[in-house]
Amino acid sequence: MASAARPSCIKVGLKGPAILNNPRFNKGSGFSRKERDDFGLRGRLPYAVDTLDEQVARAYQQFSDRTNALSKNSFLQSMKSQNWVLYYSLLQRNLTEMFPIVYTPTEADAIAQYSHLFRRSEGLYLSAPHIDTMEEDFLDACEGRKLDLIVVSDAEAILGIGDQGSGGIGISSAKAVIYTLTAGVDPSQALPVTLDVGTNNEDLLNDDLYVGYREKRLRGKGYDDFVEKFVALVKKHQPQCLLHFEDFGVSNAQRLLAKYRDQHSIFNDDIQGTGAVTLAALQAAISVTKSKIEDQRIVIFGSGSAGLGIARQLRDAMKLSSSSLSDDEASRNFWLVDKYGLIKKSLGDKIREEIEPAFIRDEQDWGDGETHLSDVVKRVKPTVLIGTSTHPGAFTEEVIKEMSKHVERPIIFPLSNPTRLCEVQPKDANEWSNGKALMATGSPFDPVEIPGSKKKYIIAECNNALIYPGLGLGTILSRAKVMTDKMIVAGAKRLSELAPAMKDPAEALLPEFGGMYSISFSNPS
């Protein structure tokens, strides 16, 4: 475990059904004869004493009997609420198969149906009407615990499916699970939290079974006061824990990170995590193209939290790579495009305030008319095309072929997830680029045929889960007071060094998920 050394034996004052109903201590059919005597379990369990291997084999068979991804997700969720050791053992041994079930893309569907699937609580629910008792509720959840990790979401921008209200606890819980699986964080020292400040999702507001606060989202001072009180409680009562922000809306994510990142050890996965894993994939790609990061021409389609986070992270890496580059100079290597077209000064109040002036293009270079993605690709001749738009099919055949005219190995990252929201299907990008595209995606895709070769090109999954557990682990172990940009860039560099493409240009730009545990604990050679 990532925490300080835990005792090999823990005194437990539970007996009978109390211990069987406690997922931390329940061992199911694995309790020994002596344990059954000591804890009053003889008549409460079948006679056989099973090894963990036998329990995992039974659980895997039950998992396999489920006929669709959502039912498999529900099965695993139920197991987690019963027996942590069995749950994590099953996942650890079948990580490649089960990761898409407990995280993207299946977890998005589970969160969308959270109120209909709800059986029992799985973390801390802080609701807007209870702001006056927030400290009492927080302390109740943390009683007797020195936490290493708190994962919090206000659920406004969940996994590409938007506002999910109180269902946001699902993403906080899933992220905490991944920290345990891949970085060894003790689940008893992790706390998933949802800030239930209402929802603007009309489907939820009109759903008779909705379990959250049935009002429109708090905005302005009311929202800021609620978040401020929560962060203050973390700083006061859990000063050494890592606070992981997850799936906050575009109007809040960056400003909250900027406000609090120097006050506590805080990490925003959608901004910093997405930027870091994209940087790692790009560093592997430019090792194939034998170019420098500061020489890339980068078009980003989709300028929300993820797109801006990527732009800022890549810009930081450019500045570290070439110390002579200023912020403004490095920013000129980026062209940001959203639903209104290229972000340029004539868009006026359509430009969100989170977008820095350095990223906004001058009219004299582009004119007053609309400038959409295909126009930008023709003019810029990008070496890198990144999608964070959740606009499926945005990278058309015209766009890919135009890019491929001017670049020997176009770097194409359609990162929107879940799968159905991807900007281009990898098989299409592969065909339209005549097999030259270097690709990474936000969700898992099957390998594609390499023209004229018997080999297949493995599509790297550019998923934050490859990097945030390792970054979090380092922060927890070092008890760092803040997580700095240099720490994140160093983590991305190390991840890129583990990419198969660094040894064989025909291989994937990122490591496979099956080795995430070793990735988190990797040291530079």
Automatic annotation (TrEMBL):
Catalytic machinery residues: 103 (proton donor), 175 (proton acceptor)
Domain of life: Eukaryota
Keyword Hydrolase included in the entry's annotation: no
Cofactor details (free text): Divalent metal cations. Prefers magnesium or manganese.
Domain Malic enzyme N-terminal stretches: 80-261
Pfam families on file: malic, Malic_M
Gene Ontology CC annotation, any one: cytosol
Chain residues that bind (S)-malate: 417, 463
Keywords: Metal-binding, NAD
Keyword Transferase: no
UniProt family annotation: Belongs to the malic enzymes family.
Protein known as: Malic enzyme
Organism of derivation: Naematelia encephala
